[in-house]
Amino acid sequence: MTVETVSDEKAAQRGFLFALAAYLMWGFLPFYMKAVAHIPAIEAVAHRVIWSVPIAGGLLVWLGRTDDIRRALRTPRTLLMGALTAALITVNWCVYVWAIAADRALETALGYYINPLFSVFLGAVLLGERLGRAQIAAIALAVVAVAILTWENGGLPWVSIALAVSWGFYALFKKTLPIGPAQGFFLEVLILAIPALAYVGWLEANGNGHFGDQGMTDVWLLVASGLITAIPLILYANGAKLLRLSTIGIMQYIAPTLIFFVAVFIFREPFSRESAVAFGLIWAALAVYSWSMLAGRSRS
After folding, report:
1. How far apart are CA 159 and CA 128, in angstroms?
2. I want to staple 243 with a disulfide (CB 3.0 to 4.6 A). Which of 122, 220, 247, 250 is the partner?
3. Cβ–Cβ under 8 Å, residues 186 and 53
């Protein structure tokens, strides 16, 4: 075994641990969201933005990568793309926070299960990527699952669809940012910090905010939102750099699986026979999709 091979294996191990830690944090995030469920979703998201700025900024200072941010702030196109991805992640966060508070965590799990299949669909439609038979079959199974839930609920599972669509487009446009993932995240929260601070300031001035007015518990919960937002994203970004795309593709099912178990067995959300069939189809679709990824990797 060569020195380079050993180095690559150690890098892959570090990447696996980084990504695993991120997905575990995301998987157990509903517990935190339940703790702040009494706080309106937009206010909770505003605090996520505000308290993420010093954490993400401190990381860039420590890594010595602040020059990228200075260049980005002087480049209109980068600022525009940063504003677009910031808007998409805001939509994703707001829907997620609201859904957990509204006892719809199961729908969030479904949304993040659908997301990789939606990303494949986006790649085919917008980037002209060719789909294999297995990928087409996986997307078809997901469509059937959504149709079953639509029939059961009398309407589209909009929480699941909104999460999958917003995150799918976020990941797509994130690739166009000419800066690294950590710098990109800081740029996004920096852009969002101005309206977030204005909104929180307006709430507090009118006596409707939860930062200090309802006791220190809310203060610490809201300050902690920066940690629970920034840390997993930073861990994921570092893990993704060190791992194969197919490995990350398989690992991304960890978080929604944990959310699924938390929703059904701890939050005791209703899980009907139709929901079981729909989730069964989604799991089958993901199995087909994962098999096609691994088969493609073995041939390369």
Report:
1. 28
2. 247
3. yes
Give the three-state DSSP class for 215. Answer: strand
Sketch the domain layout of the chain as residue ranges.
Answer: 3-299
Counting every residue written for the chain, the total comes to: 300
Strand, helix or coil at 212?
strand
- From residue 175, alpha-carbon distances to 120, 178, 260, 283, 300 in Å are 15, 8, 29, 27, 23
Average pLDDT of the chain to the nearest whole number = 88
pLDDT at 194: 94
Is 58 in contact with 181 (CB distance < 8 Å)? no
Q: Residue 1: is its pLDDT beyond 80?
A: no
Burial class (CB in 10 A: 0-12, 13-18, 19+), 151: exposed
pLDDT confidence bin for 297, thresholds 50/70/90: low
Q: Are 277 and 148 in contact (CB under 8 A)?
A: yes
Q: pLDDT band at 86, cuts 50/70/90?
A: very high
Is residue 95 within 8 Å of 263, Cβ to Cβ?
no
In sequence order, which residues have a C-beta less than 8 Å from that of residue 225 and are 6 or more positions away? Answer: 32, 36, 44, 47, 48, 51, 52
Name the CA radius of gyration of the chain, rounded. Answer: 20
Q: Which residues have CB under 8 Å from 26's CB, separation 6+?
A: 232, 255, 258
Query: Tokens 């939606």 map to which residue?
Result: 118
* Residue 206 φ then ψ, to 5°: -95, 5
Q: From CA 132, how far away is CA 203, in angstroms rounded?
A: 51
Confidence of residue 296 (pLDDT cuts 50, 70, 90): low
The Cα-based distances of 297 to 19, 34, 246, 290 in angstroms read: 20, 40, 7, 11
More confident position, 92 or 155: 92
Burial pattern 103-142, b for ≥16 Cβ within 10 A else e, equals ebbbbbbbbbbbbbbbbbbbbeeeeeeebeebbebbbebb
